[in-house]
Amino acid sequence: MSIATRAAADGRQVADRVTALVERARTAQREFETYDQRRVDDVVDAVAWAIVEPGRAQALAELAVADTGLGNVSDKYAKNRRKTMGTLRDLQAGRSVGVIREIPELGLTEYAKPMGVVAAVCPSTNPAATPANKALMALKAGNAVILSPSPKGASTCQLLLSYIREQLAVVGAPSDLVQAIDEPSKELTYELMRQADFVVVTGSQKNVRAAYSSGTPAIGVGVGNAPVLIDADADLSDAAAKIALSKTFDYATSCSSENSVHIHDAVYDDAVEELRAAGGYLLDEHQRARLQQAMWPDGSLSQGVTAQSPATIAQHAGLDIPDGTTFIMVEEDAYGPEHPFSGEKLSVVLTVYRWSDLDDALARIQGILDFQGAGHSCGIHTRSDDRARQVAERLRVARVLVNQAHAFGNGGSFDNGLGFTLTMGAGTWAGNSISENLSYRHFLNTTRLARVIEPREPSEADLFGHYRRRYGVDA
Question: Which InterPro entries is this protein grouped with (predicted)?
Answer without folding.
Answer: Ald_DH/histidinol_DH, Ald_DH_C, Ald_DH_N, Aldehyde_DH_dom
